[in-house]
Amino acid sequence: MHYCIQKTGELYTMPPHRGHLPQVEQPASLAELARTAIERAILAGTYLPGERLVEERLCEHLGISRPPLREALRQLSFTGIVEHTPRKGVRVMAMTQHDVYEILTFRRELERMALRLALPGLDPGRLDECRAALERMWPVAEAGDEGGLVAAGFEFHLSVIRLAHHKRIEQAFRSMSLQLQLCMAMNNRVRRDVEDLKGNVQRHEELLAVIVTEDRDRIEAAFDAHGNATFVRASLDELEGGSNQSAKWFAGFLDRH
């Protein structure tokens, strides 16, 4: 899925064509809008983990000069979604098995901690935020916007984190925003054979339905079964750079699923 920036400064989707981005049209901030366009393209799978981002091509596709592009890439490097490699330029962050292990366990423990603190007696207002985040996923899925759905899915999970009323847990979750989304995007790609974008939203609906029961055991089981097993199996086959810790965790996870 491609993204173009309108004169209003908003993104709209363009038909997918791997390796190409639409031009940026008279935005208020070229660097910020270019950053958003590149970020969405990465989350949509236009550029894959480990793939080099060639400045000349990006300038051509976005219709901007090198200075704002370099600023956009610099901003993205702070989030961990792209990395600068000596003599190789800028590339999408390459994921190792150990990276996936760290990101999945980080997310798992923060979500569990937040829900343990939120239960019993979930805040009705915060639950309404979860429902609103879920509703925002539907039009994105219906538009076929893969990158946008990853971002919307992250916002849903953030709303679940917010059930705890715990600013530091929320800040920790936000601090890993794009790395978490990159992992979510990889998960979505390996699930394409078993789930379309609407199915993705339905899976999140089912998760929220379990959360409102306030049954802690059911909730934790639902989070553990929230589509990660498919991704973990693919990660073991496709990703290099494992460690003793990641191998042990992956083996235990797959034994339970």
Automatic annotation (TrEMBL):
GO terms for molecular function: DNA binding; DNA-binding transcription factor activity. It comes from the Bacteria. PROSITE patterns: HTH_GNTR. The keyword DNA-binding applies. Keywords: DNA-binding, Transcription, Transcription regulation. Residues 28-95 form the HTH gntR-type domain. It holds the Pfam family FCD. The keyword Transcription regulation applies. InterPro entries: GntR_C, TF_FadR/GntR_C, Tscrpt_reg_HTH_GntR, WH-like_DNA-bd_sf, WH_DNA-bd_sf. This is HTH gntR-type domain-containing protein.
